[in-house]
Automatic annotation (TrEMBL):
GO MF entry, a single one: FAD binding
Record carries keyword Ribosomal protein: no
Organism placement in taxonomy: Eukaryota, Viridiplantae, Streptophyta, Embryophyta, Tracheophyta
Source species, domain of life: Eukaryota
Active-site residues per Swiss-Prot or TrEMBL entry: E463 (proton acceptor)
Name of the protein in its database record: Acyl-coenzyme A oxidase
Required co-factors: FAD
GO CC terms in record: peroxisome
Domain Acyl-CoA oxidase C-alpha1 as annotated: residue spans: 322-477
Protein family per UniProt: Belongs to the acyl-CoA oxidase family.
Natural source organism: Brassica campestris
This protein's record includes keyword Disulfide bond: no
Length: 680
């Protein structure tokens, strides 16, 4: 639609609406100071360099160092066709090279500077996703469990070996019969007071440790999560103290042979991430010293007495898992990196590819078609939104590690669960959209979508199944809701529930429900209020449903009856947090040109989400019919505007050539490079 026509229609509607109302109160809101929306005739120019500097932040240098190192080493770049065994060895060489040749030591930042660690992980994952996961297993999971769940004696004994890769290790939590339900794990660690040892046992096949990264080939140690069993003098004979973590050697340090009592099997070929050597572990009366208990939250004395600063099994279990949220933070952050790569490939191709056009005129770029814009421009806006949300998550996680503040721990736990679930699910869907948007060329393996999709797919499952994680978010929201009405305190991320729950649950204002001016629709307050209104209504309604159904179905039955409602609530809340952080990032951007570009994609993100759930807003008259139409048309127009600066926006990600190495994504001579790849 032409700009003049769009403005004339909006003006005509305003005149008609104003004349049909007697009340002088029905007026448009005052002009708002919004970036890049006061004049549609002005062409938006985005300073890509300034935007990139703002996006990369203070860890830009370490990411560039990683990219430059692997770009200069063709021998460390993963070929298109590679066997499982060769891929595993290549990933191991890639990790050794990072630490021993490039001189980058990620483990030193896991506890002291998590933001820098995650920046390294994002850069490493862009080289090969299997490499990124293998590094995460070594440092986030195996190394992180030692320093977060152990005490000084464990750090002193193991830190250097983990750091320099002498002590390659595993994180043995998941079992064949238990994944998400960690409290249901069946592996046992029974204390023997005579020898001062723990005996690690796999009591049945269902307790075999399964999908354990680094176990099949390279690992020498494993952090094994097992039920701590202590002998007692009562009729029971033993006491189950709940799940604890133990360091268990699994291979000889010199010969690399499997140690007595340990059985290791290879999980074999997977859908993706075949550079990671996942294996299965069975333990048959494997004895380890008492000191191998990671005893930060619970300890056993020489005479078998158990002590803990936390009074119950549930408290100890919660504290243990709370120290392991770094894995979820890493996956959310890394998933955004995958989304950047796939969106960049698809958008660059769409700018280059030409098909059809007006009669007797040159063909046009396929990104000029509204349907292609609809597929890719909201995705680009979402990529920016998720970038700033995960940057915020990393900042909160870093603060949590420094302060150990209880409220912050709870906030980060729920936020990491929500963002990991929401972003990885969105990225998984977007990879298929990007492949489709590139037509037949997107199906060629060399153009990366298949590999990215297969490698990323498991992100939706490990470190917590996405559906389970969303339920954790919903449960936390219900807890905050209860606290709000009992006068309790709320953490920062949930503060809007305390500050204005009553206003969000009031009847929609019939005046503002009809405002449809562009300045109003692009006002951050309108956008954020709409998101918060939806979340507040969902929260109140599901709380009432749970109360009603629990009387007849019990707590578990009521939860299951309302489960889809709860999942929708969790997603709505996470979208609200994402938008709030995006708006804040726009406001803080120092460069006016870069800020204008961010404001454009922020508005598209917000209005596209509102339109996608317009039924919710219409059902309660939060948005009148004409306003709904205005939201839709403005979202379409913003997609067109984003298309005009799409090149600058994807270039601002600063992804090096070896990352977006798909021939169809090259910015010059793409087709000649593509034909060379296939042999012409």
């Amino acid at each position: 639609m032409a700009l003049e026509e769009f403005s004339e229609i909006a003006a005509a509607r305003r005149i008609q609406r104003l004349s049909s109302h007697i009340s002088p109160a029905l007026t448009e809101p005052p002009q708002l100071q919004t970036e890049a929306c006061s004049s549609r005739s002005r062409k938006l120019v985005v300073n890509g360099q300034a935007l990139s500097l703002y996006m990369k932040g203070k860890h830009r240098d370490i990411q560039e160092k990683v990219h430059e190192f692997y770009n200069s080493r063709p021998d460390l770049q993963t070929p298109l066709e590679i066997s499982k065994d060769d891929h595993r060895e290549l990933c191991m060489r890639q990790l050794y090279a990072l630490v021993r040749e490039a001189g980058i030591r990620p483990f030193r930042y896991v506890a002291d500077d998590p933001a820098k660690y995650f920046a390294i992980m994002e850069a490493v994952g862009s080289v090969d996703m299997s490499f990124g996961i293998k590094m995460g297993v070594q440092y986030s999971l195996w190394g992180g469990s030692v320093i977060n769940l152990g005490t000084k004696k464990h750090r002193d004994k193991y830190f250097d070996g983990i750091d320099n890769l002498d002590y390659l290790g595993c994180f043995a939590m998941t079992e064949l019969h238990h994944g998400s339900n960690v409290q249901g794990l069946q592996t046992t660690a029974t204390f023997d007071p005579i020898t001062d040892e723990f005996i690690i046992d796999t009591p049945h096949d269902g307790a075999i440790k399964w999908w354990i990264g680094n176990a099949a080939v390279h690992g020498k140690f494993a952090t094994v999560f097992a039920r701590l069993i202590l002998p007692t003098h009562d009729t029971k004979g033993v006491s189950d103290m709940g799940v604890h973590a133990f360091i268990v050697p699994i291979r000889d340090m010199k010969t690399h042979q499997t140690l007595p009592g340990v059985e290791i099997q290879d999980c074999g070929q997977k859908v993706g991430l075949n550079g990671v050597d996942n294996g299965a572990l069975r333990f048959r009366s494997v004895r380890i010293p008492r000191d191998n208990l990671l005893n930060r939250f619970g300890d056993v004395s020489r005479n078998g007495k158990y002590t803990s600063s936390l009074p119950t099994i549930n408290k100890r279990f919660g504290a243990t898992l709370g120290e392991l949220v770094g894995g979820r933070v890493a996956l959310a952050y890394s998933s955004v990196g995958v989304l950047k790569v796939s969106a960049t490939i698809a958008i660059r191709y769409s700018l280059l590819r030409q098909q059809f056009g007006p009669p007797k005129q040159p063909e046009v770029s396929i990104l000029d078609y509204q349907s292609q814009q609809h597929k890719l421009m909201p995705m680009l806006a979402s990529t920016y939104a998720y970038h700033f949300a995960t940057v915020y998550l990393v900042e909160k996680y870093s603060e949590m590690k420094k302060t150990n503040d209880e409220q912050l721990v709870a906030d980060v736990h729920a936020l990491s669960a929500g963002l990991k679930s929401y972003i990885t699910s969105y990225t998984a869907k977007s990879l298929s959209v990007c492949r489709e948007a590139c037509g037949g060329h997107g199906y060629a393996a060399v153009n990366r979508f298949g590999g990215l999709r297969n490698d990323h797919d498991i992100f939706q499952t490990f470190e917590g199944d996405n559906t389970v994680l969303l339920q954790q978010v919903a449960a936390d929201l219900l807890k905050r809701y209860k606290e709000k009405f009992q006068g309790g305190t709320l953490t920062v991320t949930w503060s809007y529930l305390r500050e204005s729950m009553s206003s969000y649950l009031a009847q929609p204002n019939p005046v503002t429900a009809r405002w449809e001016g562009e300045d109003h629709l692009r006002d951050p307050k309108f956008q954020l209020d709409a998101f918060r209104y939806r979340t507040s209504r969902l929260l109140q309604s599901v709380a009432m449903r749970l109360k009603k159904h629990s009387k007849t179905l019990g707590t578990f039955g009521a939860w299951n009856r309302c489960l889809n409602h709860l999942l929708t609530l969790a997603e709505s809340h996470i979208e609200t947090v994402i938008l709030a952080k995006f708006i804040e990032a726009v406001r803080k951007c120092p460069d006016p040109s870069a800020r204008a570009g961010l404001k454009l994609v922020c508005d598209l993100y917000a209005l596209d989400r509102i339109w996608n759930d317009i039924g919710t807003y219409r059902n309660v008259d939060y948005v009148a019919p004409n306003k709904a139409k205005a939201i839709h048309k403005l979202a379409e127009y913003l997609s067109f505007q984003v298309r005009n600066v799409a090149k600058e926006l994807v270039d601002a990600f600063e992804l090096p050539d070896h990352v977006t190495r798909a021939p169809i994504a090259m910015q010059a001579d793409a087709y000649s490079q593509y034909t060379q790849v296939v042999g012409f």
